[in-house]
Design brief:
12 helices; 19 strands; 31% helix
Length: 417
């Protein structure tokens, strides 16, 4: 093994040049610092799609730009006819981003209909970007009916990820969906119709993004759309994020998920939107401040009124004895570094589906440093990558002497736990 690289040297390396080993020093004093994470990927993707469909020019400030998912979404929206410009501080590929990977993104939208010629098929290579794949599959409903449609494709890994539930919803509305390889998996060709049924019903779906995808397309449908999900809502925080963002931008729905969220057909004007910093990325710094003690300030992540469900992680820190404060512009965590000790009880914390990657790591480490017995309950919506993250984290903690036990969901049912 090569000599471990220090954290100071790591910060100077080019992106993608991760060394074989990194030396992580022990922290012997409280942490004090201020961090602003990059823009939220989830909010950036939603705002980008709405801006591309709006009538006129929109400006997204603090948007995530220097990430594969964002680059894929921008390139695809440009293929569909939106004019998109990125302005930051570091030049690259005709656009520019700042040192944090953010940019001010200016979008001139298409006014609710993608710019495809009669008979033209636009093929979108979305790499392994799951959000872009699902959102743009639904947005393909907004292509001109006389066009040849929109082909949704990606890399080898993306072709292994199912999209059949969303395809069935698109068919139920009135679109023509053709799988070109394996049934239920990309690549798939979506052909728009001149008339849609105006209503879509979801059961218990494997991805909240299927629901969000049709929510985002709903106001631009010829007669609007009602999105109904009468059963349990999977990853409800992401559906709330979508509805909250749309409402902030003037696309307010009537009704609710059970009775049906309805959007009337509308012509959306361009808008200006400040993208929140990423709450999931912020959670690592919040956890560090909570475990080591001190004060950590997170700029750009609201302590109040955030659209991101991951901000609830701060409440979990508070439950274990930390102090969390802030306002609509930032969040502050203070701790004496004694979480879970000194008689503060451990316990069970069930993270919300797909809202808990950093939370899982935090609870595993909290159980190790506080000598508390903690049970972390995950859910069925942890996908393969999420499960790999949990498994890898538990392996590493076992390597330093922590006892961790994974109980599969089926075994939990049999054991009654």
């Amino acid at each position: 093994m090569s000599t471990p690289v220090s954290l100071a040297d790591l910060a100077t390396l080019a992106a993608g040049a991760m060394p074989e080993a990194v030396a992580i020093p022990l922290v012997h004093r409280p942490l004090h610092g201020t961090v602003r994470p990059p823009g939220s990927k989830s909010l950036t993707n939603r705002a980008l799609l709405l801006a591309a469909l709006a009538n006129g020019t929109s400006v997204l400030r603090g948007a995530l730009a220097d990430a594969d998912d964002a680059r894929v979404m921008v390139r695809a929206l440009r293929q569909l006819g939106a004019d998109i410009r990125l302005r930051g501080g570091v030049a690259g590929d005709g656009d520019s981003v700042d040192a944090a990977g953010n940019a001010e993104i200016t979008v001139r939208g298409v006014g609710g209909r993608w710019k495809l010629r009669p008979g033209e098929i636009v093929s979108l290579d979305l790499h392994n970007a799951g959000t872009a794949t699902r959102f743009l599959a639904a947005a393909a409903l907004l292509a001109p009916p006389e066009s040849g449609g929109v082909r949704i494709d990606g890399n080898a890994r993306r072709r292994q990820r199912p999209i059949g539930d969303l395809a069935e919803a698109l068919r139920a509305i009135g679109a023509e969906v053709q799988f070109e390889s394996a049934d239920g998996y990309p690549p798939m060709l979506v052909r728009a119709s001149s008339r849609y049924t105006g209503e879509v019903n979801f059961g218990r779906t494997s991805s909240s993004q299927f629901v969000s995808a049709l929510m985002l397309a709903a106001p631009f449908m010829p007669d609007g759309l009602t999105v109904r999900q009468p059963g349990p809502v999977t990853s409800a925080s992401y559906i709330r994020m979508t509805a909250g963002l749309m409402a902030q931008l003037g696309l307010t729905a009537t009704g609710d998920a059970a009775s049906g969220m309805h959007w009337d057909a509308t012509s959306m004007r361009g808008f200006t939107y400040n993208v929140e910093a990423d709450a999931s990325g912020a959670s690592y710094f919040l956890a560090a401040g909570a475990l080591c003690g001190g004060e950590v300030v997170i700029r750009g992540v609201p302590a109040q009124g955030s659209l991101q469900g991951d901000t609830a992680f701060a409440q979990v820190i508070a439950r274990f004895g930390g102090t969390v404060q802030g306002d609509q512009t930032h969040m502050v965590v203070r701790s004496d570094g004694q979480l879970g000790r000194g008689g503060r009880p451990g316990g069970q914390t069930p993270p919300e589906p797909r809202n808990a990657k950093a939370s899982v790591r935090f609870w595993l480490k909290e159980g190790m440093v506080s000598k508390a017995q903690l049970k972390v309950s995950a859910t069925m919506t942890f996908n393969g990558e999420d499960r790999d993250m949990v498994r890898t984290t538990t392996w590493e903690f076992r390597a330093v002497g922590t006892t961790t036990v994974e109980v599969p969901a089926e075994a939990k049912k049999r054991l009654g736990t």
